[in-house]
TrEMBL record:
This is CCA tRNA nucleotidyltransferase. Its cofactor is Mg(2+). It comes from Cohnella thailandensis. Residues 248-406 form the CCA-adding enzyme C-terminal domain. It comes from the Bacteria.
């Protein structure tokens, strides 16, 4: 049985065990939606009339992941199932952990608290669906519609506005008129949402199937202008197809593409990503790519092999290879004034021909230069190693101890005549 099917079946077994103990239980939320859409399932959520302590008594391996919110994680083999007591919440600071929760008796009441109709379908162990808000119909019509009044749903949790845009982009659905009006009228409420949560939604949008659509909806809604911390420059206008995004497989490259298309320099890229609370590794990776572009932009002379190689040595082979990948996907990102006949493809060949990219790879060490030249140690060592590295990287000098030493000696002698 394929793994997806196996997880689903296992979820049904968990629900059946709850039923056998006299409770009601359904598979709910994203897993039902994704299964109906034929998409890959992530995690299986189960809603039940059983109280958390009853769930805990029933399964041998359980983790009380969110008892005040009625959630217990049931572990079976490698899989984890989130089992949550039917509930109704009135106030949120986090979708997984609403601030105020009341347990309810009826699955329909539980479904009524959910954000969108396509997320408010319950799947019973007998295969019958409980779908009081027309979620299946909306899946067919390809519409993102709120459960009940959009204003109320977004009022409860403003992050839902971003979720709505994410689902519309990811599934290539339309946002229904009332939900769209709700976004326009409630968008100031995004200010209340922690930037981590905004960042995580944006990240999913970019990593998904249709980043262009997500960016277009974000721009037309004006939503991001209302985030707690202001993000500058604003998102770029991106027309045309999704093809460029699909050439960029890692989400870091997609972030770099967005920011370069928006015209961000490295300080602005750094600022955006920090505000969204991304890891410092990611911030550094993206801003190095922006810094490399800045370095090429600033070049007063047309960019030739030497200038390009100097840029690669300064910002690293990885940033250079990433820059090339982004410029191939989105040619307007590369604003460099290349020497005649040169462009990003030639730069890629040069990059691959480089025989060393860091001083560590050189066949000579600083202390050897000190002994060879009889000079006192100082900042000249790293300057000299970098000069030798550039010559090696340009294939003007062999990366062999003898050749490197001879060149260092010649240079030192030339300087002293
Ligand atoms: N702000 C939120 C977050 C979640 N939900 C409900 O809780 C379910 C599970 O939420 P979550 O796991 O965050 O999202 P999924 O819908 O499963 O989608 P994805 O996994 O793609 O984020 C959703 O389907 C929805 O019914 C909600 O009503 N409001």
């Amino acid at each position: 049985m394929p793994r997806q099917e196996a997880i689903w079946e296992e979820g049904i077994r968990v629900a059946s065990a709850l039923e056998a103990a006299g409770h009601e239980a359904y598979l709910v939320g994203g897993c039902v939606r994704d299964r109906l859409l034929g998409r890959e399932l992530h995690d299986i959520d189960i809603a039940t009339s059983a109280l958390p302590e009853q769930v805990m008594a029933l399964f041998p391996k359980v983790v009380p992941t969110g008892l005040p919110h009625g959630t217990v994680t049931v572990l079976i083999g490698e899989s984890a199932f989130e089992v949550t007591t039917f509930r109704h919440e009135t106030s949120y600071s986090d979708s997984r952990h609403p601030d105020e929760v009341a347990f309810v008796r009826d699955v329909k009441e539980d479904l009524a608290r959910r954000d969108f109709t396509v997320n408010a379908i319950a799947y019973g162990t007998n295969g019958v669906m409980i779908d009081p808000f027309g979620g299946q119909e909306d899946l067919k019509r390809r519409i993102v519609r709120c459960v009940g009044a959009a204003g109320e749903r977004f009022g409860e949790d403003a992050l839902r506005m971003l979720r709505g845009i994410r689902f519309a982009a990811e599934f290539d659905f339309e946002i229904d008129e009332e939900a769209w009006r709700g976004i326009l009228s409630q968008r100031e409420r995004l200010q209340r949402i922690a930037m981590e949560r905004v960042g995580s939604e944006l990240d999913k949008m970019l990593a998904g199937l249709h980043p262009s659509k997500a960016i277009r909806l974000l721009r037309t809604s004006g939503l991001l202008a209302h985030a707690k911390e202001s993000l500058y420059p604003p998102l770029p206008a991106i027309e045309g197809t999704e093809a460029g995004w699909h050439r960029l497989d890692r989400v870091e490259l997609r972030w770099a593409a967005v920011l370069l298309l928006a015209g961000a320099d490295s300080a602005q890229a750094d600022d955006w990503l920090r505000k969204l609370k991304f890891s410092s590794r990611r911030v550094a990776e993206v801003s190095a790519i922006a810094a490399l572009r800045g370095y090429l932009d600033e070049s007063r002379k047309p960019i030739d092999r030497e200038r390009w190689t100097a840029a690669v040595l300064r910002y690293g082979v990885k940033s250079a290879a990433d820059y090339i990948a982004i410029a191939r996907a989105f040619p307007s990102v590369d604003r460099s004034q290349w020497d005649s006949g040169v462009g990003i493809e030639r730069a890629d060949v040069w990059l691959r021909e480089m025989s060393a990219a860091t001083v560590k790879e050189l066949a000579v060490r600083g202390d050897e230069l000190v002994r060879l030249l009889g000079r006192e140690a100082g900042p000249w060592i790293s300057e000299e190693l970098n000069r030798l590295l550039l010559l090696v990287a340009l294939n003007k000098l062999k990366n062999e101890a003898q050749a490197l030493k001879a060149e260092a000696k010649r240079h030192w002698t030339d300087q002293n005549v």
